Amino acid sequence: MNTKEIQELLCKEEVLKGNLPCENVSNIFYCSESDVVSILKSGYTVEYEVKISRSDFKADAKKSKWKFYNAKVEKGIPNYFYYACPENLINKNEVPSFAGLIYVYENGCKIIKKASILHRYKHDLIKLLTKFCRVKSERKYLGSCLLTYKNNKIKERNTIFAFKTPAQYTPL
Fold this sequence. Notes:
Strand order of the largest sheet: 1-2-3-4-5-6
Number of helices: 5
Oligomer: single chain
Radius of gyration: 20 Å
CATH architecture: 3-Layer(aba) Sandwich
Helix content: 25-40%
Number of strands: 6
Structural class: alpha/beta
Number of domains: 1
Shape: elongated
Distance between the termini: 53 Å
CATH topology: Trna Endonuclease, Chain: A, domain 1
Strand content: 15-25%
């Protein structure tokens, strides 16, 4: 399974539970991007970090964001955190104490280690839902996030102009 397939399966499972998931959401918590974030019916948030290789999991331990999780900085982290991966990629003994572990199969997910609650602060649901709507709208109507869309347009423009000689430019 690849990352996208796991994200879609996690989102489907969350929707079936009555929760509101969104994949590849940036700048919600202190980390740069969350693979999947879900708003539970209770108003709490869950972050899922998808791993499809051992090297990716090991590299993840070096990220600076973990200091916020270890310190349980309420406004900077979700209420729950899970690693999600194919079966036996990560052993539950390798997972940090603050994290849970989910194995993902072709037909569903299985919790191997339940995540404990990191804090009871409820994030601003209007901001979260606005971010989710923005992400979904940009992907639907632009085919990517707004920043990627704009960068691609700049690259296209630069490619067009890069091959013209000064004589080929049309005067204004």
